[in-house]
């Protein structure tokens, strides 16, 4: 464990640590004499270190990204209701089977985040979904957080629960075939964000990441900066830099192996209600600025969330971020930005399955090309250009 001297020394090097995040000034009395400074040696993540690094590199492979289908049963019900289907296990299974059995999906998708129900489910023919994924060389993943709840003492903000029992659950998920995990917490710019909320988000992510690695799961670290608000892109950049500074501080404090994690950040964009919309070139510029300032090159992959952008917007922005070399694999971990057209094509009808799977491949290939910096929006449908932002979105 890091000594108190080391903690104080690290805190003096950042203006965004813990409760001092908003009011610490330069020249603070936290500085220590050189003779009192100690060097912290980061330990390996137990016996799984080599496997974690290999898994992370497999997911962060050229031209591929993550298909996120980890919606809770309640959120899955909202998706199904949009096409007139009841929220039953059979309907959820049918939709997830459509997605995961798409021929050729592994050409563009390297990992898929599943909800717990899906991880333990099989196809209607009795084949485990994890085996369906493995056959396509897609790594199975699992959502492990237990959702957002109000954070007492904050500015109407949230914190993510789920650390209780996480070690034992992670061990079971690994046994079932999962090899990476996802934990999503959020930061709201209109709510401040408060120092308390940012510290809670960063600490929770760090504890989850350490527990995941200790049980053989590559943790996806996801503090989502919500799109809600009318703030300019410069404000988003400021908050994102502060949040990621705090996150990496606590990841290091918890001895997380950076080579065995993946990040799932929001793109740096203006607030959804801002009067001026940013171009893909501007979003790429601000997002890469944030990453270069805050993310160590040891991290294998940056797998962006789409956060309510349209399918085309999310792909265009990713394409622009891959117009020059990056120290990390810059790719995607999309849910709605891969599924929206698919769901509307399917409509719950067996005769539409083939067409829906073709729609999924179109979107997956588009994002694969974007990851390689070779995407063109020419020929995209009007449906793919429709925004999907929902104010106060939860899932």
> CATH topology, which one?
TIM Barrel
SS strand fraction: 5-15%
| Cα Rg | 21 Å
* Number of discrete helical segments: 13
Q: How many structural domains can be distinguished in the coordinates?
A: 1
Give the low-pLDDT segments.
1-43
The tally of beta strands, per DSSP, is 10
Averaged pLDDT: 88
For the largest beta sheet, what order do the strands appear in spatially? Answer: 1-2-3-6-7-8-9-10
Q: Could you spell the SSE succession in H and E letters?
A: HHEHHEHHEEEHEHEHEHEHEHH
- Named at the architecture level, the CATH assignment is Alpha-Beta Barrel
Major pleated sheet: 8 strands, parallel, barrel
CATH superfamily membership: Aldolase class I
Proportion in helices = 40-55%
The coarse overall form would be globular
Please state the structural category.
alpha/beta
Family: Belongs to the class I fructose-bisphosphate aldolase family.
Pfam family, one: Glycolytic
Catalytic activity: beta-D-fructose 1,6-bisphosphate = D-glyceraldehyde 3-phosphate + dihydroxyacetone phosphate
Subcellular location: Plastid, Chloroplast
Give structural attributes.
395 residues, TIM Barrel, 8-stranded parallel beta barrel, two-stranded antiparallel ribbon, 13% strand, globular, lyase, Aldolase_TIM
Give your account of this protein's structure.
- The structure is a single chain.
- The protein has 395 residues and is of the alpha/beta class.
- The chain has one domain (46-383): Alpha-Beta Barrel (TIM Barrel).
- It is 41% helix and 13% strand.
- It contains 13 helices and ten strands.
- The protein has helices spanning 4-12, 49-59, 73-81, 89-100, 116-119, 129-135, 166-176, 195-214, 233-253, 280-294, 311-321, 336-346, 353-371; strands at residues 65-69, 109-114, 139-143, 148-150, 158-160, 180-187, 218-225, 262-263, 301-304, 329-334.
- The strands form two sheets. The protein has an eight-stranded parallel beta barrel with strand order 1-2-3-6-7-8-9-10, surrounded by seven helices.
- Strand 6, helix 8 and strand 7 form a beta-alpha-beta unit.
- Helix 8 (195-214) packs across helix 9 (233-253), helix 10 crosses helix 11 and helix 11 (311-321) runs parallel beside helix 13 (353-371).
- Residues 1-43 have low confidence and may be disordered.
């Amino acid at each position: 464990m890091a000594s108190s001297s080391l903690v104080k020394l690290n805190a003096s090097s950042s203006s965004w640590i813990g409760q001092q995040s908003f009011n610490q000034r330069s020249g603070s009395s936290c500085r220590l004499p050189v003779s009192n400074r100690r060097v912290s040696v980061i330990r390996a993540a137990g016996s799984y270190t080599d496997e974690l690094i290999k898994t992370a590199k497999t997911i962060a492979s050229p031209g591929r990204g993550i298909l996120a289908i980890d919606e809770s049963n309640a959120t899955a019900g909202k998706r199904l209701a949009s096409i007139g289907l009841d929220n039953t296990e059979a309907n959820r299974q049918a939709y997830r089977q459509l997605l995961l059995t798409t021929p050729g999906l592994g050409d563009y998708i390297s990992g898929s985040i599943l909800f717990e129900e899906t991880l333990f489910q099989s196809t209607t023919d009795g084949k485990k979904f994890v085996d369906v994924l493995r056959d396509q060389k897609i790594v199975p993943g699992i959502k492990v957080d237990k959702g957002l709840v109000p954070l007492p003492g904050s500015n109407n903000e949230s914190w993510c629960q789920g650390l209780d029992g996480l070690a034992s659950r992670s061990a079971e998920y690994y046994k079932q075939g999962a090899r990476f995990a996802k934990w999503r917490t959020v930061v709201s710019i209109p709510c401040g964000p408060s120092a308390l909320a940012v510290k809670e988000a960063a600490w929770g992510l760090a504890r989850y990441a350490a527990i995941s690695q200790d049980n053989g799961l590559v943790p996806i670290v996801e503090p989502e900066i919500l799109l809600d608000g009318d703030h300019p892109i410069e404000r988003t950049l400021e908050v994102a830099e502060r949040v990621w500074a705090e996150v990496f501080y606590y990841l290091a404090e918890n001895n997380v192996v950076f080579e065995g994690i993946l990040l799932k950040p929001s793109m740096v964009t203006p607030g959804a209600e801002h009067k001026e919309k940013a171009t893909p070139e501007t979003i790429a510029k601000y997002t890469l600025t944030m990453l270069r300032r805050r993310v160590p090159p040891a991290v294998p992959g940056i797998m962006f969330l789409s956060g309510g952008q349209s399918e085309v917007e999310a792909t265009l922005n990713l394409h622009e971020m891959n117009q020059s070399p990056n120290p990390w694999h810059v790719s995607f971990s999309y849910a709605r930005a891969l599924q929206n057209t698919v769901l509307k094509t399917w409509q719950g009808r067996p005769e539409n399955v083939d067409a829906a799977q073709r729609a999924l491949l179109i979107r997956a290939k588009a994002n694969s090309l974007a990851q390689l910096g070779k995407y063109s929006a020419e020929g995209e449908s009007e449906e793919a250009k429709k925004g999907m932002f929902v104010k106060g979105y939860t899932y």
